[in-house]
Amino acid sequence: MTRAATADRGQTQGLRTRNTSRFSSLRAFATLALLGAAVTLPQAAYGALYTDPATLPANKAYDYIIIGASPGGSVLAKRLTEVAGTNVLLIEAGPNDAGVLPIEVPLLSSQLQPNQLWDWNYTTVPQSALNQRVIQYPRGRVLGGSTSINFMIYSRGSEDDFNQYAEVTGDSGYSWSSIEPYFRKLERLVPPVDGHNTQGEVDPSVHGTSGPLNISVPGASLPTDSHVVQVTQELPNEFPFNVDMNNGKPIGVGWLQGTLGGGARVSSSVAYVQPIIDSDNLDVLIDTTVTKLIKTDTQNGQPVFRGVQFAQSSTSPLYALNATKEVILAAGAINTPQLLMLSGLGPASALRAQGITPILDIPAVGQNLVDHPMLTNQFGVASADDDLIENLSRNATFAGDLVGEWIADRMGVMVTAGQNHVTWLRMPANDSIFKTVQDPSAGPLSPHFEFLVVPGFLSYAQAPPDTGFFMTILTIIVTPTSRGSVTLSSSDPFVPPTIDPNFLSTAFDRAAMRAAVRSAVRFASAPTWKGFLTGPAASFAGVDVNDDDALDAWAREQTSTIWHPTGTARMGKCGDSSVNSVVNPDMTVRGVVGLRVMDASVLPFIPAAHPQAAIYAFAERLADLIKSGKSSC
Ligand SMILES: Cc1cc2nc3c(=O)[nH]c(=O)nc-3n(C[C@H](O)[C@H](O)[C@H](O)COP(=O)(O)OP(=O)(O)OC[C@H]3O[C@@H](n4cnc5c(N)ncnc54)[C@H](O)[C@@H]3O)c2cc1C
Ligand SMILES: *[C@@H]1O[C@H](CO)[C@@H](O)[C@H](O)[C@H]1NC(C)=O
Ligand SMILES: *[C@@H]1O[C@H](CO)[C@@H](O)[C@H](O)[C@H]1NC(C)=O
Ligand SMILES: *[C@@H]1O[C@H](CO)[C@@H](O)[C@H](O)[C@H]1NC(C)=O
Ligand SMILES: *[C@@H]1O[C@H](CO)[C@@H](O)[C@H](O)[C@H]1NC(C)=O
Ligand SMILES: *[C@@H]1O[C@H](CO)[C@@H](O)[C@H](O)[C@H]1NC(C)=O
Ligand SMILES: *[C@@H]1O[C@H](CO)[C@@H](O)[C@H](O)[C@H]1NC(C)=O
Fold first, then answer.
1. pLDDT, average across residues 119-147
2. Rounded to 5 degrees, what are φ and ψ at 126?
3. Each residue of 240-291: pLDDT tens digit?
């Protein structure tokens, strides 16, 4: 993970339009991103890949039309086409991911957003609890969706989280014991590319070894690695070592597991779509945006939605197709609620306000947006040798050499995502916030917050200094209680919706962030860092961590996101008539026939983990449910 920065707060405040931020991350890499675009393979090489709707086979009947090559959409495309005679059309708004260098090279992830070729380039509304700052809100717009531009952290989440999913949905199929076999089914634990002995870094008995999705521990070391491990020996009570945080019990400090194999990123496209892209029964249409879902019939008084309308741009021809069985919406936590609302499925009065005739009043569409707030806390480091990020951003020769090494043999630090460990922790039980607020975590196995240690200066609110050497500890709240929304700003499908994650708007979230920063400061005060760290960096040095108000001010000024929006079309119990959910436990849209959702929007609460693993597993389970012909309700 690397930095993005706007020049100063003054410029960030009130930023409303896209593409105006002074994004200055890793300046030396700029030409590499262009190189990546230039090496995109000719798309004619792929049999079933269509770049123009006009060239789709005429009169072919599709059983399923899947909207969005997200992890949800990609898993279903593969699994549903495993049934002979089942035809699937996968429609993706963005381009092909194959052969794009910055998508493949893990450490070039920072080049993929914000405001790059593979990004929707969203921004939030000014955040009222963050000094009215506008936050960049990248989402992948490419085969693989956000898994083609993400930072590849693979974390399943805790047993308690999954058992709570089962409770909230009334479906025991979401419990840890039911979902854990799906994690094994989708994973293929592979050795890191440097071939080092991984004993003590991962527990192979926890993992699958023959699934489509490669995962591995990092294949190159970072200057912070030995110190992070040493902290677990020096301060084991607060920071216990955890050999495998994906065993259902994540608390502690452990080696990162990433969606990485052979030194390269593994997205849902790489794992699920590209290997079958020549199949006769899968057609993949890229560069094409679904603009609306179409009501095709009424059945037992319920609207049937088996039609989709799509176009390549706001000025190009509109096309329409019907699925014979189902339309599966997998357009992600932002675009799925947008498409539902554009199609007349959503909060009726909000739709009318945009001139859209409601077909079914579903108040929860676009509501309950939850995301993980992330704060960057910078420390000085003594030696230039220990700061990878500044080395890269200030020395184009160094960066170029590393990319060259990756191209030559897929080795070197470019095979990492820029952090090699993850830390999951709970707030102290005696934190005074618990006198007034109930613990929002799913249970004692679930963390409240997370750390990531990055060897360099990272900030999404200020420019990196031109001199000095740094390490950043990211503090992330993984059980936030703030709730935001995605609402329509226009009935035009090519106009972005209004996105409000409402970060740090609750007393709990602010208290959790204070607890996380204090814990990070204790982490950085362990004896092992003596001589390595020089103390808080100038940016952070003025913050009195003993003072709640000072910490709150720091959080308001610096907090951004770790890009995990969820919950905007969330799952509830079968027949739930409350206004709080959108889909049934089998992901069918309640009150609608022929339409399911399978992406981050269905999660009824945000996992206390990076969400891609849970989404892959839920999609694998849904594929089995669809194949079995059973419904949950
Ligand atoms: C920068 C970044 C870093 C992240 N890091 C991590 C990480 O390290 N670990 C982790 O677990 N998670 C990470 N995530 C989150 C993770 O990638 C997502 O949770 C995951 O991809 C699921 O997202 P989603 O379901 O919202 O859909 P997405 O993955 O966003 O996919 C939605 C897809 O639908 C397409 N689409 C949307 N609208 C339309 C339309 N109208 N017509 C056709 N196609 C459409 C999009 O172009 C896109 O391809 C990160 C996300 C980002 C953005
Ligand atoms: C996002 O911005 C980049 C850079 O300006 C651009 O190439 C890309 O097309 C934009 N994406 C969208 C969806 O507009
Ligand atoms: C998985 O990783 C192995 C190396 O361990 C590599 O050879 C293979 O190509 C990767 N496959 C995918 C689909 O990522
Ligand atoms: C989809 O189905 C509807 C209702 O049966 C029909 O009117 C429409 O023509 C169909 N569209 C296509 C493209 O076949
Ligand atoms: C930074 O660059 C110097 C000189 O090129 C090199 O010796 C050092 O190892 C680099 N440090 C990291 C962390 O890459
Ligand atoms: C830049 O990197 C190159 C290659 O690693 C190294 O030889 C050179 O000394 C570096 N320059 C500086 C100023 O550190
Ligand atoms: C909470 O408990 C810890 C020991 O577990 C103690 O060090 C700390 O002072 C306590 N804090 C408060 C606010 O009571």
1. 98
2. -50, 130
3. 999 999 999 999 999 999 999 999 999 999 999 999 999 999 999 999 999 9
- Backbone φ, ψ for residue 59 (5° rounding): 60, 20
Q: Which of 502, 482, 574, 611 is nearest to 161 (CA)?
A: 611
| Ligand 7 midpoint to CA 424 (Å) | 19
Cα 397 to middle of ligand 6, angstroms? 6
H or E segment and range at residue 179 = helix 176-186
225 Cβ closer than 6 Å to some ligand 5 atom: no
Nearest CA to ligand 2 atom 8: 117
What is the C-alpha separation between 633 and 618, in angstroms, rounded? 17
pLDDT tens, 287-312?
A: 999 999 999 999 999 999 999 999 99
**Token digits for 452?**
């990531």
Separation CA 549–CA 540 (nearest Å):
14
Residue nearest to atom 10 of ligand 4 (CA): 322
The CA–CA distances, whole Å, from 592 to 102, 336, 368, 385, 426 equal 41, 15, 21, 59, 41
d(CA 235, CA 233): 6
Q: Give the distance (Å) from ligand 5 centre to CA of residue 467.
A: 15
Q: What is the pTM of this model?
A: 0.94
Query: Which ligand has an atom closest to residue 293 CA?
Result: 1
The span from the CA of 243 to the CA of 252, in Å, is 9
